[in-house]
Amino acid sequence: MAKIEAGVSQDRKEATVFCDSARPAVLDSAQLEELIVHLIGTREGMLPPRAQLDPFGGTQVLVSEKMRWYCKAKHPAPGFAQLLLMHPGLGWVGIELGPEGIDALTAELQKARQSLPPKLEG
What is the pTM (predicted TM-score) of this model? Predict the structure, then answer.
């Protein structure tokens, strides 16, 4: 298996990607984003496919406090929505939700909301 390493320059404007004995590639942020998208598309087409399971202990999950989300109703398809998440390193990824998906997500968010401690009056 190829050993792959990457690092960011001191000025944080370039990344260097190393792959075994190959010559290192120095990429600016736009080139690195293009590479990431290309790698994601390549992995999506590979076998075995990623199992469509809920994450469990030991599953690598990309989490960032700088993420943001965006949700919009999908027109002209009533009852559908797009939920998008923006990871600062990965970019935008999203899912199209039908009525069942919207209901399931709403139920999970309501459970999370109910588990919050009550607000203090003040």
Answer: 0.72
